[in-house]
Write a structure and sequence with these properties.
CATH architecture of the largest domain: 2-Layer Sandwich
Largest sheet: 9 strands, mixed
Helix content: 40-55%
Bound molecules: adenosine-5'-diphosphate, magnesium ion
Distance between the termini: 20 Å
CATH topology of the largest domain: Creatine Kinase, Chain A, domain 2
Structural class: alpha+beta
Length: 726
Amino acid sequence: MESNRLELVRYSFEKKALPVEIPEGRTSEYYGELVFDRPKMRKYLKPEVLKALLDCIDNSKPLDRKTADGVARGMKEWALDNHVTHVTHWFQPLTEGTAEKHDALIDYDGEGGVIEQFDGKSLAQQEPDASSFPSGGIRATFEARGYTAWDPTSPVFIQGDTLCIPTVFISYTGEALDYKTPLKKALKAVTDAALPICRLFDPNVNKVFCYLGWEQEYFLVDEALYAARPDLMITGRTLMGHMSSKNQQLDDHYFGAIPARVAAFMRELEVAGHRLGIPLKTRHNEVAPNQFELAPIYGECNLSNDQNQMVMNLMNTIARKHGFVVLLHEKPFEGINGSGKHNNWSLGTDTGIPLLAPGKDAMGNLQFVTFFVNVLAAVQKHNALLKASIASATNAHRLGANEAPPAIVSAFLGRTMTQVLRKLVDLPSGTPVEIAGKEGRGVGLEEIPEIFVDNTDRNRTSPFAFTGNRFEFRAVGSSANCGEAMATLNAAVAQQLTAFKKDLDAELAKGKDLSIALIDTLKPVISSILDVVCFDGNGYTEEWKKEAERRGLDTETNVPKMIRAYLAPEALGMFAETGVFSEKEILARCDVKWETYCKKVQIESRVMARMAANHIVPTAIEYKTRLLKELSLSKEVFGRLEGCDTERNLVMEMSALIEEIRTRVDAMHKARKAANGIEDDYGRALAYHGIAESLNALRKPIDRLEEIVDNRLWPLPKYRELLFIS
Ligand code: ADP
Ligand code: MG
């Protein structure tokens, strides 16, 4: 397959778009047909079971075994009506992607046959052999049991012939082994911490919700070309490849017309998502060639994250039907933009009030400013930790590489909000203040600008940006599970809100009016965030790096070192206070992160060495031999070598490049051996960080060879082919 690259290219180029099968009727008619949602619960569950289940979902009331049996019975009937034969717990271990273990929905009937069977116990809990999932040593190998436990707040869904039950995944001793468990704990912490503050403004608020709207970026490449690139297949990115003459410099891809084959894939993906109740909304071309984006309407954070995982799975399978492979890696190609997953995040009350958007009146605005400032304070305090939550071997290629995000977590406020905050800090103490509402009512004693946030006020270089009614955490990687970043952000905000409420209570106890107490408590916080975390300038410049360091923001770009932020006393303390992670869990997670980092770099290093040996060096030698033959023929015929300078120079350059490749591969091999001898996970990860850097150096002679070797001989699909065929 590899030797006839040009044939593969022609074959890929000639592929046409596939017809897409679309269910009959409008989207709203098939939307959610594969989820056991409330209408289906009403249809399939007995009234008392339904009531208990909804009480569990909405009010966190525990579910007894009898109710679980009732729920299982209803789910089974619904599943059988939809030709389902199997059931699985569906969970999110600390690997990429989700895990499932299918069981047929049958049991002996006692008379020599079988019946369809599914009960509350199988719904509520399974015990998969967990020893093959990363645990960072929490679960010694002799105790291979892990538990998956049903998460009733995320609806059960059907995938093919299988009923999928979203679950958490924990160890025998109760530690989280997944992304969902800490996320759920952090969501509880943040919504519980926000509630008493909201109640000061409106006693009718009973619950606070956290929302997530993710924007999934990805690349598509033709599967035939992909299969001819061992690096893409095994590591998800190209480890070599000369830049195409044309990349993204003409800015002609972003929001451009979607190619027909891609449009067919997107359409089918959307239909599949809609049938699963995933509110997919936006699709468009991204900045880089063959790069695209997909985003749903935002929803409750835990559910929205599950849906992102479901969509990532769907993307992989549906792309293959259309002859594509989806690349979710953060940086599949050097020299052009990589992929991220902006996490649009906000809080809102059960009374329908968004907490991170300007309010309807002066008090509403004060509530908004209160939450706004506290979020920024949390981001400031835990900026290093937030960066750690998105750090990985794959996202490392975006961090600090002059594309969103820079490796410094600062926040973009925009002009309006910066002005509002500046005015607030400058107010003399005890001044009653009213911040004008949208209608411009009630301007207070001091002139404060009316809050009308223009959400076109954008700064693409900021990793944490306010965009009118939400914050966008942009540093999250395209291949990541949002759960890690969302758990960290929510936990940090929870801690800050709790501390703020305590300070506020102290001010209120002095007999101050609510708005004065609020402003007095907010003022020192505002001063601090304006001085430190808030930055509206260009995050890619050298001056900002220096300035950020001066401000005390974390500027580390080395991923293994970034991960250490989890172990800092303020992080351990914050996670303990909010109940999101125990120290044992943090230690285990860090080990998993470092181990994963090492393994990823190790695999890349091996693949690159083998490709150098099996693809690159032989091709270079073949071309070199051809030139040498020509030179020797020339000498034979003309008796001299004059007029053959091009050939001679090429031969010499190639010899030098081949030699450089060999030396670098040998050195890398030695470095790997040395790294593997290091016991301690952190130390080993640091050593592998060095190896990761040496991959870039090894790439250079290879890419130069691609530039000079005869195009017909080159075995690997080139960037210009991978990126421009769709
Ligand atoms: P852009 O590219 O301009 O950032 P997109 O439309 O691609 O915008 O995606 C924005 C995402 O933010 C969508 O998922 C949208 O539903 C989500 N979003 C909008 N408002 C909120 C909010 N208040 N809280 C959380 N997410 C939100
Ligand atoms: Mg966005």
